[in-house]
Design a protein that fits this description.
two-stranded parallel sheet, 5 helices, alpha/beta, about 40% helix, single chain, 2 domains
Length: about 130
């Protein structure tokens, strides 16, 4: 979305996530207070505390076999060991339903990246998004 000119923050980078697995809440509060047109990505334990501050909460989902195939093919080494693959399966079983309950929109992650970006851009630019 950044390539399309939108302000974005990927909370997997830049110190947004604290050692306990949650966002740095004062920092996230300051970020959200400063920007109404921001796209935030990341999944953390305390993200639900901020849901009322987001216009949309989007869940990108895909079936477990697709996720496991993707982690095998990417540069990031996480997901290649049997233990990590079991951990991913457990997250799909236990965490994804929680994320789905909090989401306002679910998109099929098997769609081409450009289609997903188009869908997100429509959410961001819709008249009711601001």
């Amino acid at each position: 979305m950044q390539r399309r000119g939108h302000l974005t923050v990927d909370t997997d980078f830049g110190g947004w996530e604290l050692p306990g697995g949650g966002w740095d809440e004062p920092r996230m509060d300051a970020l959200l207070s400063a920007h109404d047109d921001l796209i935030v990505s990341g999944t953390v334990d305390n993200q639900g505390r901020f849901y009322d501050r987001f216009h949309h909460v989007v869940l990108l989902s895909a079936p477990l076999p697709v996720l496991l195939r993707r982690v095998t093919d990417r540069a990031n080494p996480y997901g290649r060991t049997p233990g990590q693959r079991a951990e991913i399966a457990e997250y799909v079983r236990t965490v994804e339903p929680l994320l789905r309950r909090g989401a306002t929109v679910e998109l099929d992650g098997r769609r081409p990246v450009a289609d997903l970006a188009d869908a997100i851009e429509r959410l961001v630019t819709a008249p009711d998004a601001r």
